[in-house]
């Protein structure tokens, strides 16, 4: 499994709805409310054999109320 961090910018007044929808899908290991340009930060483990973009698009990005996302890939450094 490959850890990926995804930040979500939500439509005004929709952050709690988006967070609930993310939790309902039971695919994130951690989900935080954040300050700054984005409203939520999720840590997601994606199967090694999956295409990250397709996997995220099929499992997360179709949630109503998401205006923008920022995905940060991780790499084994040591």
TrEMBL record:
InterPro entries the UniProt entry points to: Dimeric_a/b-barrel, Tscrpt_reg_AsnC/Lrp_C
Query: Where does the record place the Transcription regulator AsnC/Lrp ligand binding domain?
Result: 6-76
* Protein origin, superkingdom: Bacteria
What is the protein name stated in its UniProt record? Answer: Lrp/AsnC family transcriptional regulator
């Amino acid at each position: 499994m490959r850890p990926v961090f995804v930040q979500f910018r939500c439509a005004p007044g929709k952050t709690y709805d988006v967070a609930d929808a993310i939790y309902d899908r039971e695919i994130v290991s951690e989900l935080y409310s954040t300050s700054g340009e984005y409203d939520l930060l999720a840590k997601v483990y994606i199967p090694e054999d999956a295409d990250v973009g397709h996997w995220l698009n099929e499992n997360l990005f179709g949630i109503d109320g998401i205006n923008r996302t920022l995905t940060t890939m991780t790499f084994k450094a040591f």
